[in-house]
Amino acid sequence: MQYLTACVLAAFASYIGAWYLGAIEGNFALLLFLATFVTGLYWLGERFYFLPRRKAAAARLEAEARQRRTLAAEGGESASDELAQARGRLLAQPWWLDWTAGLFPVIAAVFLLRSFLFEPFKIPSGSMIPTLLVGDLILVNKYHYGVRLPVINTKITEGKPVARGDVMVFRFPPRPSQDYIKRVVGLPGDEVVYANKRLTINGQAVPTNDLPEFFDEDAMRYFKQYGEILGAPAQPKPHRLIVDTTRRGGFAEAEIGNYPFREACGYNEEGVRCRVPAGHYFVMGDNRDNSLDSRYWGFVPDENIVGKAFMIWMNFSDFKRIGFFD
Predict the structure, then answer these.
(1) Which residues of the chain have pLDDT under 70?
(2) CATH 2.10.109.10 location in the chain
(3) Catalytic residue among 115, 142, 182, 308
(4) What one-character-per-residue DSSP string does 175-236 give?
(5) DSSP for 88-123?
(6) Tens digits of per-residue pLDDT, 140-179?
(7) By the 8 A CB rule, do 275 and 262 touch?
(8) Per CATH, domain 117-324 is 3.30.710.10
(9) Cα(134)–Cα(285) distance, rounded to whole angstroms?
(10) What is the DSSP pairing of strand 300-301 with strand 280-284?
(11) Candidate list 78, 115, 125, 127, residue with the active-site label
(12) Does the active-site annotation cover 182?
């Protein structure tokens, strides 16, 4: 078993190494599932086969020692020590079980927590400025929109419906191995218009108000900042956004991808108009002129949803950013 285990551990290490070096496109959810499954098999083997065999061997050793009864009076204590040491060696868990069955409880806890409750992410880009900054470490609620099976992402409970204004993490439709984070703007059936840097949903302009300019420390410049309110009237979701007044509002044909339901959208020099298909969502970044979002690659299908982002749990550059957000 030790040689088989060495091969299994080497396979995991090779996969992680190739992923780290960029030789392959890794899948952490799949890797964690396989690690849980494999270590779980070893844990069951240890509990119901290997450990009982070691205990039986230790019991036989003690029985044989009692039967001999040849220990001299002056050597009894030493023999007892040797017996205890021999028993300890028999009961000790071998290295290949330490690195498999011994790790199973920790790996299983991480797998369950990450798959069904909360998953941490790090914000890698500025597309959600000013709501989320580069380097923010966030938590995503994995059950808010319904519990999904890990790896295959099949929904098994309904959960709450996606709402306009939610900050949602999803698998990037053109490349599902990547996770993206954007704000939900359009629900199935909505007509979304973004023209001249203003958002309109179903013929109604989304309410906005002027805010003080936002200074982006990475870009070292100020941007026009607005407050915007999405969501139902009974549950408004105010948030901030920024726009770059030096960027044009329209789209060049070369900027637009050939995505599913492309015919549901129309582009011109002022902006874009889309009718959101059933089972899909239209998402945008809060950094409206620096966000690769639904305006460029289309709609997010329901099966790609990962969860609802709700909290910054750490930012090592600014501890004041820790807290909940909308």
Answers:
(1) 69-79
(2) 117-324
(3) 182
(4) STTSEEEEEEEE-TT-EEEEETTEEEETTEEPPEEEEEEEEETTTTEEEEEEEEEES-TTS-
(5) HHHHSPPHHHHTTGGGHHHHHHHHHHHHHTEEEEE-
(6) 999 999 999 998 888 999 899 999 999 999 999 999 989 9
(7) no
(8) no
(9) 13
(10) antiparallel
(11) 127
(12) yes
pTM of the model: 0.87
- What is the spatial distance between Cα 324 and Cα 316, in angstroms, rounded to a whole number? 16
Residue 79, pLDDT score: 58
Please classify residue 19 by burial: count the beta carbons closer than 10 Å to its beta carbon, then call 0-12 exposed, 13-18 middle and 19+ buried: middle
Backbone region of residue 187 per phi and psi (left: phi > 0; alpha: psi in -120 to 50; beta: other values): beta
- Residue 161 is predicted with a pLDDT of 95
- As a whole number of Å, the end-to-end CA separation of the chain is 51
The residue with tokens 């991480």 is 110
pLDDT of residue 315: 94
Calculate ∠ Cα 63-69-71, nearest 5°.
120
Q: Is residue 115 flagged as an active site residue? A: no
CA distance 80 to 86: 10
Note whether 314 and 132 are within 8 A (CB).
no
